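User: Reviewer 2 asked us to show a designed sequence for the structure in our supplementary figure. I'm pasting the structure tokens here. Could you produce the per-position amino acids so we can include them in the response letter?
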């Protein structure tokens, strides 16, 4: 239940509503408009997907990850805080959160 997820998870939870089986349009039980309105009213991300064709399957994960990263970069979400729901898989990934150091004038940042 959506209210349970919000009550039990981090206050900065990112939730995406995936309408599945997009390829079976004739068997649709919820219209795109109904699902889209529900998502908007409940502040959810929304995509329709099809596992059969692969449509929007990867995009659902990408959008979710992008929203989480935006929350980290804006300071709304602190991955170092206990209970944030975020864990780094590799210490090198923590550099994503660290601001880039200014480069001295006349030098270029390595692109490797």
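Assistant: Here is a per-position design you can include in the supplement:
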């Amino acid at each position: 239940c959506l209210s349970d997820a919000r009550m039990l998870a981090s206050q900065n939870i990112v939730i995406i509503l995936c309408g599945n089986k997009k390829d079976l349009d004739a068997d649709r039980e919820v219209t795109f408009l109904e699902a889209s309105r529900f998502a908007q009213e409940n502040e959810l991300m929304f995509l329709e997907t099809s596992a059969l064709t692969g449509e929007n399957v990867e995009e659902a994960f990408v959008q979710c990850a992008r929203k989480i990263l935006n929350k980290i970069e804006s300071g709304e979400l602190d991955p170092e805080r206990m209970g944030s729901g975020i864990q780094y898989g590799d210490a090198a990934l923590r550099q994503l959160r660290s601001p880039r150091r200014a480069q001295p004038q006349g030098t270029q940042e390595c692109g490797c």
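For the response letter, you might also mention the following. The two ends are 45 Å apart (CA to CA). The mean pLDDT is 83.
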